[in-house]
């Protein structure tokens, strides 16, 4: 600071110096007679030159300080951005891990509930007589059971049918003491609306005690946990898939068959070697129409997807051949013995597409 003040004082002293007028006169003489100016030595003005160097040095120091402050500010902003990005990525990773765990728990609950319903013996509960007439409201167990079945298979379209996934089969599978029409009204009026409300609800990675673990239309959305939100998404997703399958099989069957026979490589990607789109995809869609979307055990035993049917198909197409026009895909000479051939057929037949496919 002292050097800086001294510099400004020195500037004032130099400006008030009367010798500066000689410099002005020298400039005027030089402009009038440039040849005479070359013979005479120039006015050196050492104080002005020294002061110019001092001012340039002071200004350079000020610019350097300003640049350092700007770099420090930019570095601080960059560090804050890195910290915020890291925090957001950590929060997002924690939320994704929580969602993955929630999905696993949800599927375990659905499997456990499916097994418990399969082991129960309350088929008389689907008739509106006797005990059914006494129960007017939906109990907590009934609301949970019907929500689990809907999340597994999707909401049906037909009210009363034993040959297709219907509301009659829904109350039968869920073991609720209600009629098919009443279950349909309950799902359309309450459950689906609550599912849409839960989907738009913000999810939190932290779980609260006493959270509702299924879609309960009689409770507020704030009381539902992450598992209930995932179940709501799964319920709407499989309901939409079931309606799409029903529309394709009933209204677009010819277009569907043409596409399955088109030879698109995407139809057999990540599928077993025996998978034939116009045979097994059709069987899969028909099984979904009859048993529901997520009824994997029933789908595995349905028509051409049954293990015995797959084994017969593999043996006929790959080993034996289907007539003179369709020779076997694999040359029987490649198998050294009948036991090796039977083992290959058995191992190939038990391969099944994963659930996500």
Entry keywords:
mainly alpha; 357 residues
Description:
It is a single chain. This protein is mainly α. Among the domains are: 67-125; 137-260, no CATH class. 65% of the residues lie in helices and 0% in strands. It is built from 14 helices and no strands. The protein has helices spanning 2-15, 20-32, 34-39, 46-119, 131-134, 140-153, 167-174, 180-199, 226-251, 253-260, 277-291, 296-300, 307-320, 338-349. Helix 4 (46-119) packs across helix 6 (140-153) and helix 6 crosses helix 9. The longest helix has 74 residues, at 46-119. The chain is elongated, with a radius of gyration of 42 Å. Mean pLDDT is 79; it is low at 121-135.
Tell me the Rg in angstroms.
42 Å
Q: Give the overall average pLDDT.
A: 79
Helix content: 55-70%
> Major sheet: size, sense and barrel closure?
none
In N-to-C order, the SSE pattern is HHHHHHHHHHHHHH
Distance between the termini: 76 Å
Query: Would you count the extended β strands for me?
Result: 0
Percent of residues in beta strands? under 5%
Separate helix tally: 14
* Spans of at least 5 consecutive residues with low confidence: 121-135
Outline of this structure?
With 357 residues, this protein is an all-alpha fold. The chain has helices at residues 2-15, 20-32, 34-39, 46-119, 131-134, 140-153, 167-174, 180-199, 226-251, 253-260, 277-291, 296-300, 307-320, 338-349.
